[in-house]
Amino acid sequence: MARDGRTTRGEAGPVTPDAPRGATQPPEPATQPIPVASGAPTERVERRREPADAPVPGDRRERRAAARRGPTRGWVVAGVAAAVALVTAVGIAACGTSSDGGGDAGGAPVAPAASEFWVDPASSAARQVEAWRAEGRSDEATALEKIARQPVAIWPTGETGGVEGEVAGVVSQARAAGRTPVLTAYNIPNRDCGLYSSGGAENEDAYREWLGAFARGMGGNRAVVILEPDALPQTLTNCEGEGEQEGREELLAEAVRTLTRAGGEVYIDAGNPGFVTNVDELAGGLRTSGVGEAAGFALNVSNFMTTDQVRAYGDRVSDAVGGARYVIDTSRNGNGSYEGPEQPTWCNPPGRALGAPPTRDTGSPRVAAFLWVKEPGDSDGDCRGAPAAGEFWPQYALDLANNTPGD
């Protein structure tokens, strides 16, 4: 599944890719952060995308990273820790103004949900809440808080020169807040088989260099890492006619080892029930990709399939790989997959809803966590009046929130 949420060719039927306000004090993380390794940077590095070269004007990923880091520069880690600790104590997260859509402060910042996982105070949804409040659109702002207060995975830049600083910035803020960050490593060579989310590292050596920078940014601190959405499933399906990715499973195994040593709780992406239907084949790919050294595997990333569907499939895969645990992306699966007549079914389908909020309390010993790997509201592509893939679409986010029961 591409990050843009499209259905990968070869999937069955209408399969599409990818809570109450929390208490004022978040619970203790399930696992304490690993102490920062010696030599880790003491200064908070800005979460820049391309510090060595100016970003391409209009680049969406750079604008979103800039929006998250806000207008303030040059903070030191100690200052961040003190500021975040103070904010957490009163049950709010500070929202910085945005360079691409945020407005002036229009009310109290969004209170993060009580969760082990870190909530980005400058997420797209949080900035939209702030902007709508400033415009007097209080009903819409309140509805969108269903998304803004939940932890969502961060997808760091694919630029080797920028990834270490961005990951370090996320990890330092999460550590100061006493929470665990969720990161998505998405930069494998020939990413998405050259299709909608094409790109990635130029070659295997460049990818190893990028992984090393990613790992240095983690600095020995605990982080959940979703490893390379689509990479293994596409390899097993020969990239849908684009040629088998030779050596990709071994490269994923290297990534597992590198990120695990850096403090990562690594889950190898394994697609969804409609992607690789041969469970034995998927299990073999997972074993070669290092699932035995990883925390487990990930399912339903950027997809809409119901949690029950995914769990039935996930348990079969788990049985085939010796009981490995897995995580499920529940960000947009509240109403399941779209089965209406409008095409394409994968692209910003109408009538969808938010799924279960991120939590370790899944009710199943096999399911390590429900996570929001894709940010609800991120466009799947320029269909149904939406912006380009990856852009935050406020109206779609609002529809997801309004279609979800509860406050």
TrEMBL record:
Annotated region described as Disordered, given as residue ranges: 1-71
Basic and acidic residues bias spans: 43-65
Transmembrane feature ranges: 74-94
Broadest EC class assigned to this enzyme: hydrolase
EC number: 3.2.1.-
GO molecular function, a single term: hydrolase activity
Pfam families: Glyco_hydro_6
Annotated InterPro entries: Beta_cellobiohydrolase, Beta_cellobiohydrolase_sf, Glyco_hydro_6_CS
Catalytic residue list: D230 (proton donor)
Organism in which the protein naturally occurs: Actinomycetospora straminea
Gene3D superfamilies from the UniProt entry: 1, 4-beta cellobiohydrolase (3.20.20.40)
Keywords from the UniProt entry: Carbohydrate metabolism, Cellulose degradation, Disulfide bond, Glycosidase, Hydrolase, Membrane, Polysaccharide degradation, Signal, Transmembrane, Transmembrane helix
Protein family membership: Belongs to the glycosyl hydrolase family 6.
Name of protein: Glucanase
PANTHER family documented for this protein: 1,4-BETA-D-GLUCAN CELLOBIOHYDROLASE C-RELATED, PTHR34876
Taxon lineage: Bacteria, Bacillati, Actinomycetota, Actinomycetes, Pseudonocardiales
